[in-house]
Amino acid sequence: MEQITEKVILVGIDSNEGFDEEASLEELKLLAKTAGAETLGTIIQARENVHPTTYIGKGKILEVKEAIDNLGATGVIFDDELTPSQMNNLSKELDTKVMDRTVLILDIFASRANTAEGKIQVELAQLRYSLTRLAGYGKSMSRLGGGIGTRGPGESKLESDRRVIRNRISKLKKELSEIIKHRDVKRSQRKRNNIPVVSLVGYTNAGKSTLLNTLTNAGVLSEDKLFATLDPTTKKFVLPSKETVLLTDTVGFINKLPHHLIEAFKSTLEEAKYADIIVHVVDASNPEAYNQMEVVYKTLDSLDIHSKPVITLFNKCDLCHDKPALKDINATKSLNVSAIDINTLDSFSKAIEEILSDRKIYFEKLYSFNEAGIIQRIRKSGQLLSEEYKENGIFVKAYIPKDLVGRV
Ligand SMILES: Nc1nc2c(ncn2[C@@H]2O[C@H](COP(=O)(O)OP(=O)(O)OP(=O)(O)O)[C@@H](O)[C@H]2O)c(=O)[nH]1
Ligand SMILES: [Mg+2]
Q1: Do 170 and 221 share a domain, yes or no?
Q2: What predicted TM-score, i.e. pTM, was given to this entire model?
Q3: Ligand 1 neighbour 101 (Cβ under 6 A)
Q4: Ligand 2: distance of its center to the CA of 220 in Å?
Q5: Does the beta carbon of 338 lie inside 6 Å of ligand 1?
Q6: Number of structural domains, the chain?
Q7: Which terminus in the chain has less CB density within 10 A, N or C?
Q8: How far, in Å, is the centroid of ligand 2 from the Cα of 194?
Q9: Domain presence at residue 184
Q10: Are 200 and 314 in a shared domain?
Q11: Could you read off the pLDDT tens digit of each residue along the chain, which spans 408 residues?
């Protein structure tokens, strides 16, 4: 298929809060590149709030229009989610293809989705996004199809468009809930086996998949692109203490993650909810590292993921020679590592062991010979220190997870 390269101009508003707008447009540029568009220029307007009907002010619109003509752009991408009326007005005023951060991220997710679940989630998000936009387009939308069968009063076409979308949404939701049910079964199996789950979270491009690959040879795609990973991958990782944990790598977070995506991807994003330990991977070489960390914590918060032990990994430390060291007051432990260099990761394994051993207690008990099954269970979920065969049974000494005590 022939690939058309869009040439775009990026437009953002500097409201003096959170991310520096220049950095945000740098990120938008990377998103555009990931989606296959070339950035010709960037324009920033300093204003406290977005303009309610045109996002930027009148004068700035003229400036953007001029840039489109001078540079030969085929489209404009705005650094926030535009309201339907902003999008409508800007399309008219600029007379070119108008896109926003949300469309771009949805597009990237669509091209990255591999599994049935990922595809359904992306389509759900896209449909929900377009459902809110249909109203704004009104008649122009009904003319879009053109030709026989599409003529007629705009409103009724709009109604039927809506109905088609709603039906599709409810069908997809049903399919998705089947898949989620299946995953819940798997999760509860893990829980029964008592294997601790360690979940990698972090801003997109922080190095989560690289870390998983270095530790477990997982062979997960890792790339210098945003959202290289969409679908969760879980791998076994054996600690130096010989205890096994499950490491899960999943979709990264980003500033202004569209709420349609958060809704649709809830089950994927929530992967960390079932973790015993959260590993927060940070790209310490990125000048926006602190803002990115804040986005990660806010996203975890909005997913109701709290009060779990957190290990923060300041990653890519091979690139941070002259930078001041970063800190994370939210973390149980923080470490400087380089995910591409396994020699820097010993301290990481140790940190996991330490946190897990905090949750274990020393245990000894005499079991009768026909209770050998329980000892097998201790061996699997805990750390069996010794078993002594005596005349009246087997005497066991072990460290076991606290929540296993009642069951052994
Ligand atoms: N120099 C250096 N590069 C690294 C390090 N860790 C990861 N990278 C690079 O950073 C880029 C992103 O790494 P990924 O592992 O794909 O990042 P991710 O967090 O999985 O990103 P998403 O899946 O997009 O959320 C890749 O080009 C990696 O090679 C590191 O320790 N040092
Ligand atoms: Mg990844």
Answers
A1: no
A2: 0.84
A3: no
A4: 7
A5: yes
A6: 4
A7: N
A8: 26
A9: no
A10: yes
A11: 456 689 999 999 998 777 889 999 999 999 999 999 999 999 999 998 899 999 999 999 999 999 999 999 999 999 999 999 999 999 999 999 999 999 999 999 998 888 888 899 999 999 998 887 775 444 444 444 444 544 455 557 777 888 889 999 999 999 999 988 888 787 777 766 778 899 999 999 999 999 999 999 877 888 888 888 888 889 999 999 888 999 999 899 999 988 888 888 888 888 888 899 999 999 999 999 999 999 999 999 999 998 899 999 999 999 998 888 899 999 999 999 999 999 999 999 999 999 988 878 888 999 999 998 888 888 877 778 899 999 999 999 988 888 788 888
Q: How far is CA 74 from the centre of its chain?
A: 30
Q: Looking at the domain assignment, is residue 190 inside a domain?
A: no
Residue whose CA lies nearest to ligand 1 atom number 4: 316
Atom 2 (ligand 1): residue with closest C-alpha? 316
| Any ligand 1 atom below 6 A from CB of 220 | no
Give the closest residue (by CA) to ligand 1 atom 12: 205
Answer for the pair 233, 248: CB distance below 8 angstroms, yes or no. yes
Boundary-marking domain end, from 92, 109, 126? 109
Show the domain range for 158: 113-177
Q: Which of 33, 111, 210 to mutate to test the pocket of ligand 1 (most atoms within 8 A of CB)?
A: 210
